[in-house]
Amino acid sequence: MEGQKFRHEYKYHINTMDYISLKNKLNKFMSLDNNAINGCDYNIKSLYFDDFKNTALFEKILGVKDRYKFRIRIYNNKSDLIKLEKKIKHGHLVAKQWTSVTKEECENILARDYSFINNNSHPVLKDFYSHIKAFNLEPKVIVDYDREAYTYKAGNVRITFDKRLKTGVNDLGLLNPEVPLITALENNIIVMELKYDEYLPSHIRDILSIGNREALSNSKYVICRKYTKTNMWEEN
Description:
Elements: E1 7-15, H1 16-26, E2 31-32, E3 42-50, H2 55-62, E4 66-75, E5 78-90, E6 93-100, H3 103-110, H4 123-135, E7 138-152, E8 157-168, E9 181-183, E10 189-196, H5 202-208, H6 220-225
Antiparallel strand pairs: 1-6, 1-10, 2-7, 3-4, 3-7, 4-5, 5-6, 7-8, 8-9, 8-10
């Protein structure tokens, strides 16, 4: 953890009415994220990786405090920005390490051709490759949703509403805009995520009624793994 910048992160399930109420209050003083299209949502599609023991999955379910997982992420079904990310968790603290990869490099990863990494010195790519070799890291599931995000400068606060959570039906074609997806969470349930640095301003805390909400233990990754062929009920 030394030298790594961590932030607080909490997730909550809310219903549509709660979302509308919170949105109307927050958008009076928070800024809509720059990624928003036409002042609304933007799409996020991620391909998550796990090892042959599904360590990331089971550590999350068991509530292991220190854990991590790798994913490749695209936005709005475009390949102009493709991120390879390592998400590191320490309880409710989170940090991300990432690097961009080209469409060709992403296709090579999906084809399990990692030769290009030998010519790339980025530590995230090197770390990713070492996990592939040591633990047989491989793609497991696509997680897809539409995000509405708000930011607030004081405390570096970011509040997101993730809607219409879907997952691939055992299809890992991340770069295929026609990849078949199924609903993974009822459309009237929205995942609200709260992230901030050292402190959360009191007026935001009051609006969100943090003291009255219970943070989620399951992530979108865990929810979507229920629909894969090798899921948590079939293994072990």
